[in-house]
Amino acid sequence: MSTPPLNGLKVLEIGHYIAAPFCTRILADLGAEVIKIEPPGGDPFRGWGAAKDGHSVWFSIHGRNKLCIELDLKRQRDTLLQLVARADVLVENLRAGQLERLNIGPEVLHAVNPRLVIARISGYGQDGPYRDKPAFGAIGEAIGGLRHLTAHPGGATELPPPRCGISISDDLAGLYAAIGLLSAVWQRDATGTGRGRIVDVNLVDSVFSLMEGMLPEYAMDGRIRQPAGAAIATASPTNTYPCADGRWLCVAGNSDLIFRRLMAAIGRPELADNPAYATNGLRCQNRDALDTAIAAWTRTLPAKDAEATLEAAEVPCSRLFDIADCAADPHFRARQAVQDVDDPLIGPTLHPGPTIRLDGERPEDVVRWTGPAVGAHTGYVLHTLLGLPRPKGDAQGDLTSA
């Protein structure tokens, strides 16, 4: 591959669990040097999910392309500040104000390195009345408005509103942090300010930013969008339908031309000529009858066959993929969104490829190394990068995982 776009960008991560490490994984995949600072014993995330031979398979991805070192921030503060002096960016997702309590707040860090961009990810932000409340991803979904929308339609069930199945609040905050810090780096370097900035990102705002037009709708006349299940209130037919094999088919047939093709494909062309379904607005008003007709057809076929029929008619659709479907899918494989990787700690495994591709280059080499063992690069970072003296008898071969 050509030189990656973030080659030369030096990043420190004081992160745990998901948000900050997700942000820095994106940066590392794009070529940045990321030094992940873990407390003695390692990131608690190493204990999450499935494990093989005592090593978390999640961390294979979570820590990939990062230099992982152990550092006690309370006892090795001077070493941290030496790392700060050579860094471009520091990313942290400790509880709001924790850096200050450790005496390594932004004023201290900028006194050492005025050019440092500090990205701070927290539950509610670095100020405001909720600043000191604890939060995890589920709380971001709840207060940011998403969990209300993923509920079942009113009266459909007494089950609680389901979460989306991943820590989407953390991932969103990590993405926003990456955008914010790169913006600050651009301003510092390209416009000549030479000054580092503090990027304040939180889980709640990250989720709330996705609420589309709901805020001005509420301001207009007090309307509050309600859960719609698998449907979309403003488009029809767009829903998820049961198939003969117990699987589900997602269909998006809401434009007038696609709707006509969809009705022909399911053997109901007369519905395309019915005035009650002439426009998207009318179809939304008569959604239940239309969904019943489509579901009557999907129930007669396995999901894969129904999908093939609608694809032949150029109707947007897809079976609901589980991870096994994704891993085996030819499109995922062709674009290397799913990659075979050899992890020295857990053996052959699969990694997601990069979401960002530049100039059509194939991303074969994006996984330079997998998430290493705790402290795998401590010696390399402290003695080779920082030039600190080695303890007597210390081995020279430090970069064992890279």
UniProtKB/TrEMBL annotation:
InterPro entries: CoA-transferase_III_domain, CoA-Trfase_fam_III, CoA-Trfase_III_dom3_sf, CoA-Trfase_III_dom_1_sf
Span of the signal peptide: none
UniProt cross-references to SUPFAM superfamilies, sorted A to Z: CoA-transferase family III (CaiB/BaiF)
The protein's name: Carnitine dehydratase
Keyword DNA-binding on entry: no
Keyword hit for Cell wall biogenesis/degradation: no
Any one Pfam family match given in the protein's UniProt record, by short name: CoA_transf_3
One GO molecular-function entry: CoA-transferase activity
Keywords: Transferase
